[in-house]
Amino acid sequence: MAEPDLTKLRQEIDRLDAILTDTLEKRMDVVQQVAAYKDARNMQVLDREREEQVTAKVVGMLKNPAYAPHMKQIMEKIMETSRNLQIDILAANIKQKEKNADPIRVGYQGVKGSFSHQALEDYFADIAKVEMNFVHFEDVVTAVKNHEIKYGVLPIENSSTGGITEVYDLVRKYDCHIVGEKIIKVDQNLLGLPGASIDNLKQVYSHPQGLEQSREFFRKHPAIELIPFFNTARSAQMVSESGNPAKGAVASRQAAKLYGLEILAANINYNSANRTRFIIIADQPEHRPDADKITVVIATQHEPGSLYKVLQHFYKGGLNMLNLESRPMEGRSWEYFFHIDLTGNLSDPKVRQGLQDVAEYSAYCKILGNYVADGENA
């Protein structure tokens, strides 16, 4: 038998690839029509049963059954790609509708120049909006619940100092829903009046998180009194209005510019990769086809090994946990709520079943939201 000609074999593969490309492109054209159909009828993208039927049907068409496991892998990838194309189309349609809608009212804690305001501006960049600012985190939450604003923006976690416990408690207490998140890079700066110097500072104001993130810097300046304040930007505003060169603030560069302050020391946070995750809260849950992150809060039975037993069901259900934060139950010593972030979309039956199993073995279980994770989290 003559030895096969590799060049001719590759030419044949190239010919078949051209046919395959044409067929797949036509398939994607049809998938676009499917996405439009589902969008018009508010249908979910994922139909696991249909995907399995299509895959099995194609595998069954093979003349050589030895190729079955390989064809199954190919079809599963095609199904995934088709699903992602539909998700991209539906998500783009949602963004366009939001862009063309009437202005929405959104709120944040602090003033312009704060990191919360930056997160709001970044998240709602292409959406017509009316911004409202509040003094306390709880003010933002109650404004959402009272429908003064549609969305609230709250910091919930910092990469250097961990979870912001007050926000975890407020979201659960007021039965809020998480509908989005935004992660921003946080650079803390020591600000003072024009002409002021670090050596002459006696008091520095900032949000407790800002002071904590800059603790290494202030250990070198033990004579400076650190005073917690409502918000980093409000600290800058207060220092500016005081006219006192002995007062300083830890805040952003934007706050320095807004309130006419000088940067006495830049990037004083000890972690150069310092980031804060903000959540977008609403009174009602929302679901986007491209949602890929879920937040739940659970409570376990007050008995040995109860948390371990519940967490086992995350593993058994194939649920990928990203974060776990414990918060004490009010009035019940040594009992806790656990806030858990995980990957997934609630339209996926496997995810729903996994969470149902978790709920069955928990004393309390509530889904706080299913939303699109910020790419900065990757």
UniProtKB/TrEMBL annotation:
Entry EC number(s): 4.2.1.51
Keyword terms of this UniProt record: Amino-acid biosynthesis, Aromatic amino acid biosynthesis, Cytoplasm, Isomerase, Lyase, Multifunctional enzyme, Phenylalanine biosynthesis
Keyword Lyase: yes
Listed GO CC annotations: cytoplasm
Species this chain originates from: Succiniclasticum ruminis
MF terms (GO), sorted A to Z: chorismate mutase activity; prephenate dehydratase activity
Biochemical pathway: Metabolic intermediate biosynthesis; prephenate biosynthesis; prephenate from chorismate: step 1/1; Amino-acid biosynthesis; L-phenylalanine biosynthesis; phenylpyruvate from prephenate: step 1/1
Tagged with keyword Isomerase: yes
Domain (Prephenate dehydratase) ranges: 105-283
GO biological process, one term: chorismate metabolic process
Pfam families reported in the protein's UniProt record: CM_2 (PF01817), PDT (PF00800)
Residues in ACT domain copies: 295-372
Site (Essential for prephenate dehydratase activity): T276
Compartments, as annotated in UniProt: Cytoplasm
UniProt name for this protein: Bifunctional chorismate mutase/prephenate dehydratase
Reaction(s) this enzyme catalyzes, per UniProt: prephenate + H(+) = 3-phenylpyruvate + CO2 + H2O; chorismate = prephenate
Family matches, as InterPro entries: ACT-like_dom_sf, ACT_dom, Chor_mutase/pphenate_deHydtase, Chorismate_II_sf, CM_dom_sf, CM_II_prokaryot, Preph_deHydtase
Its biological purpose: Catalyzes the Claisen rearrangement of chorismate to prephenate and the decarboxylation/dehydration of prephenate to phenylpyruvate.
Domain Chorismate mutase: 1-90
